[in-house]
Amino acid sequence: MKIKKILVSQPKPASEKSPYFDIAAKHNVEIVFRPMIRVEGLTAKEFRQEKINLADFTAVIFTSRTAVDNFFRLCEECRVNVPDTMRYFCTTEQIALYLQKYIVYRKRKISFGVTGKLDDPQFLAAVQKNHKEKFLLPVSDVQTDSTASLTNAKIDFTPAVMYRTVSNDFASDEPFDYDLILFFSPAGIDSLLKNFPNFGKEGEREVAIGVFGTATAKAVKDSGLRLDIEAPTPKNPSMTSALDAFLTANQE
Fold first, then answer.
1. In 3-state terms, what secondary structure has residue 40?
2. Which of 2, 9, 3, 54 is closest to 192 using CA atoms?
3. How far is CA 166 from CA 37, 42, 57, 146, 223, in A?
């Protein structure tokens, strides 16, 4: 099938050096960046319904910058003073450095992993070294990371929903004339079907689908939609390499 216009369901890259721009030029296609989902924080009133006392915790585990933002926002809205003795454990160094937006960065108080996962050996080693701490784990209402590694390590942690993922709806006058859509989470598939209930049904215009991650691929298949591009694979470890390969094979 001929691809002319592609929707990437993520924010536009900050750098013009993104591979997406190279692909657009190489294959003479238009690439539009538009998230299918957005994150909104819980209000203090909603958070209080979880009956979690933020002042009870001595350490926080962060898996994203969104988690960082909403933790400090809710602490302020709930009038909880974050003590200087609080310890922070981040799944990546990027998240750890982002903490400088809210606190004075001190290496003795901040640890981080490499892979971005809770089961990362370096991250787990740091957490286990401080196993006597009482950990808070800010999460979304749609939790994708398994916490089994923390449970197996007998870590005293409490997941706290602080933000939610919602559909970023299309306006009635917003064009939907894409030939290919790239998704990065199951929530994106939910948003697509919420906005376009007849998507993929007989008689509707054919649109190809590409995904990153096994959970997103499963969401496509469970919805009865056809999956055209899947990453990561040994041959195509990134979404951009998979997209490039697909366009090369289909743009003749």
1. strand
2. 9
3. 6, 12, 28, 21, 18
| Percent of the chain clearing pLDDT 70 (strictly above) | 98
Residue in this structure with the two tokens 């691929």, named with its chain if needed: 217
Q: Which two tokens stand for residue 15?
A: 């750098």
Q: Which residue stretches of 99-176 are H helix?
A: 121-129, 148-152
- Rounded Cα distance between 112 and 96, Å, is 6
Q: Kindly state the DSSP code that residue 55 receives in the 8-state scheme.
A: G
Enumerate residues 6+ apart whose C-beta is below 8 A from 250. Answer: 1, 2, 3
Element (H, E) at 219: helix 214-222
| pTM: predicted TM-score of the whole model, two decimal places | 0.75
Instruction: Look at residue 220 in the predicted model and tell me its pLDDT.
Output: 96
Helices and strands per DSSP (H, E), number in the chain: 9, 11
Give the β-pairing of 157-167 and 37-41. antiparallel
What is the C-alpha to C-alpha distance for residues 244 and 242, in angstroms, rounded to an integer? 5
From the list 27, 6, 21, the residue with the least C-alpha distance to 251 is: 27
Tokens encoding 168: 């970023």
Q: 29 and 250 in contact (C-beta within 8 Å)?
A: no
Q: Which residues of 207-216 are buried (b: 16+ CB within 10 A; e: fewer)?
A: bbbbbbbeeb
